[in-house]
Amino acid sequence: MATTEVFQDWDSPHENLSSKTTRMSTTRTTTKTTTRRETSASTKTTTMTTAAKLYGKDLSEYDDVDVDDLLSQLSPEEINILAKEVDPDDSFMPPSQRCSYECDKDPTGPLNRKKLIDHINKQALETPDIPELKPYVPGTVRGKKWIPPPQDNQKEKEADEQIAIDLGDEYEQALSAASQEEIIDLAAILGFHSMMNQDQYHASLLNSGQPVGLGWDGITKASQPKVFPMEPPNNTDVDATIKQVHDDDHMLADLNWNNIKNISDEKFIQLFEALEINTHLEALSLTNVGLTDKTALRLADAIEKNSTLRVLNVETNFISPSVIVRLIKALLKTKSIEEFRCSNQRSQVLGNKIEMEITQLVEQNPMLLRLGLHLEFNDARHRVAAHLQRNIDRICRVEYWEHATMVAIGSGYYTYTILPADFLKKRKQNLALAERNDTAVPGRGSDILVR
């Protein structure tokens, strides 16, 4: 496709012919070749211009023709015909003026898509196929037949030689004499899961024998799913348990309202008001009971005044992220709850701001050991997990020191050795035996400190 460059200057159309020639005011198609030579003294530029051609015809004779004069001699009909032949590349013009196609037919009515598709299909079926230059003959090969290149198996042989491992005569003899079931068990022990199916793997782990007909080439059939009984409905009496919590019944240490439907907000408020004065309830589970923000805020106020509750579960409810933050903030005041679960709420995604706020609150809580909440960002997950692990380690150490009787034996100036309580009994026996035999025992007397 030829490219036409148009150089036009419409600023002064009425100047003389010489000025127009100087300013290149005509439409021409040119090809320029410029050679530049630079020296330290001067710069010379040489330009060679070839004659422009259109369809092989020299256009140099039209260089001095005035386009305005030609356009002024045309009639309106001729200008309209010329405008239809020219498609101006101007993005500021509307498409109706840029397009040279004009339909002179009258509209036949509104668009009927079904009739249009039927008409297109009918024309496609009635239009004859374009005849082939070389007709198709069955059984003849048209063109060159593709022949695959010969495969080079040398690389595969070299790879096999490199992979081969010498296991020794003992292992080679054991593996060669092993049965197929024993090889499958060995693959399961080594963790080669891709070499076996699930039935073979679990049979190897349970040592229950390989299924019949399931070798290396066996087909795994669908196993019959286990039928589990339906969970019985929760028959907990709501009013009775509220009265027990209000009366501070020492027999009620675990309250479970899971999956109880149609609990009114008044019942929740009565329970949370009773929870403020209760001193025996240790676990409260309110999963899938329709807890909303209004009642959850009342629960947060009750948690701040309760000092015995250790486990709180409010999963699968309609609590917003901001109220979840309020509940976690209430855990800081009570400092007795060790496990708090509140996942699967109305909003599945908490957001970065809420998660960072929850992370800061958890890091300030020294008693929380378990948190059931889905955190999307890695930073929040890692910080919360690390803090909970530190709390668990510290609690374990504190419980060990509180429940175990410790013995400190001094071996020098301000130097003591911590020993378990069992060592004290043996040492007392040794002291008694040494006193009978009149022998010296190191660390005897005032250097023993029992706590």
From TrEMBL:
The keyword Chloroplast does not apply. One of its GO terms (cellular component) is cytoskeleton. Pfam families: Tropomodulin. Transmembrane segments: none annotated. Residues 1-45, 87-106 are annotated as: Disordered. Gene3D superfamilies: Ribonuclease Inhibitor (3.80.10.10). InterPro entries: LRR_dom_sf (IPR032675), TMOD (IPR004934). Its main location: cytoplasm. GO terms for biological process: actin filament organization; myofibril assembly; pointed-end actin filament capping. GO terms for molecular function: tropomyosin binding. It comes from the Eukaryota. The keyword Cytoplasm applies. It is found in: Cytoplasm, Cytoskeleton. Residues 19-33 have a biased composition (Low complexity). This is Tropomodulin isoform X2. The lineage of its organism: Eukaryota, Metazoa, Ecdysozoa, Arthropoda, Hexapoda.
